[in-house]
Fold Tripartite motif-containing protein 45.
Amino acid sequence: MADSSPSEKNFETDITTTCPICFESFKTPRILPCLHTFCHNCLSSYILSTCKNKESPVGFPCPLCRRFVPAPSFSVEVEKWTELIPVNKIIHTLSEKGDKLCDACKRADEEIEASDWCESCSELLCASCVKYHKRSAVSKNHSLIPIVTFNNVSEQNKKIESPYALCQEHNDRVEYLCVEHEELCCTRCAWNKHRKCTQIDGIEEVAENLRKKGKFATLSKEISEYEDTLVKTKSEGEDTIRYIDDTSDEIRKESTELRNKIVNHVDALLEDHLSELAQNVKQNKDNVAEIVAAVSDRHLLMAQYLQTLRDTELTPPSILVQDYLKIRRQFEHVTRSSPSKLRLKLHSHFSEDLTRILQVTKFSDIKTEIKSLPLRGIDLSCATMELICELNGCDGDVTGGCFLENGDIVLANRDSKQLLHYRNYELVQKVTIGMQPRDVVQQTPLFILVSEHHNLKGNVGQFDLNAFKNVEEILKRDNNVYSLALSLGFVYAACSDLILKLDSKGNVVQQYKVDNYTYSVAINNKNEVISSSCATHNVTVMDNSGKKMYLYTHEKLKWPYGLDVNFSGEIFVAGKHSNNIHVLTPTAELLKIYEVESPRCIKLKKTSYMCFVGSKTKTTKVYEFEKYLHR
């Protein structure tokens, strides 16, 4: 076979020393985990342009192979990521030298093309020098990499990747884990930096303990659950983009049809309207696309984590522990910085405007309703409780109520013996019933259940939502009935010293003995029974058999009259006499206390952080828990 032409040799050299972004010789080449190399400035500009519109970016795709590259650190700004990506030493050397000649031979005034790179010496070597390098006692253990492999990513992987984790400080093989600092150590680190630490375990022992304790499986499960959320959120975002397109098309069609009927007067106004619509659609699609991109990045990152965690049997212990610690830390950061998902609606009053076209000088604005929902919930220990509005017409003695599926609110006003129905926070009807209402829950889209009592006689009635009248009595008792809760088709009713569990026909299928003056009951997503007693000022969590699991008491909780539980299982307790709302974890541990004047009940809207708080003497108020933003 004929020798390669000079142009072919130069082309091979260009592949090695030319940045694939700027097509010039590398300047401070940075190598990604996929082993593609780019100039420092080129990669930095690319990362910034890729991540600038993403919320809390967690990485970026390689410019060449599109493999997702996790952020080198979640504790530094995106602008500094490139500085933490390692320099490709051999490419750096080749770029600076401008040739591929053996460094050892050049010192002897000979020009022989190099075949290998010595990582330990940071020198290029020809085939002869490689042979002597391997024979020398001083350099026999040096790591040699054939230069040709730098044109083949898969070969680079085989040659460059070490089977052992290396100490970041000394670049020596990791032998230990400092349990106190959760830091991987080589022998020198263990004897110097960590000699005063209380527990330093061998890396193989640590890896085996992690396997036995199921740590990898636990982390895999958490990541899988989060990945499922990301997949669902990404799909919802894509559906929202399609919804924007479909809805905007409908608005456009309606607008255009009406324009044709009165075109002489409407043309000028219509152009402004369509321009505004297009701008609004683009802006909202861009917003949703940013969320989808952020979620997609997290999805790719979770997939990488899962792949690493599933291959634990074949992974050396030090790498295994290193990966586990790194993934766990990064996963905690990623879940804390999760992007929000958007709920969006487009509205146009174009048709109404056109019917009054002779009086209109400008079409109404295109409006978008956007709701930002966190993927993994708000950290209620550092959230704020923001007032949305007050519900006029319910001045005191509201003991319960609920949000309906359509967003309406129904309140139970004990003194007036009325049910109050609110739509868009405005009172639309009042209905007086025979007894004093205590609580309301929505049983089906058409029916609500209302607990009521008078003179130690109580019952639970089924009310038709359309007619707002009692159509059937579910339960009759010779004592009072207070708060209600629904779960899996069963109705739970708080009756002071008992909680009754009823089937759909009103039959009592189970009774739970509780402390006196228990006025509230709630059921979480694990079907656990939560109650509060105004006699003991305690909150109790029981399993569905009635066994007590968790107990909460606090010096600042007095007369816990009402409570509710949200979609995450967090418990909200209204301290009537302590003038506060206590927010607890699902295991009844305190997250935060919010000061609220004389709260009598608190009810949460499903799958949101909105609630209303009823009062003995004050107007019922609607609140929303929000992330605290530093200003």
In short: The CA atoms of residues 454 and 615 lie 20 Å apart. The chain is about 30% helix and 30% strand. The first helix runs from residue 6 to 17.
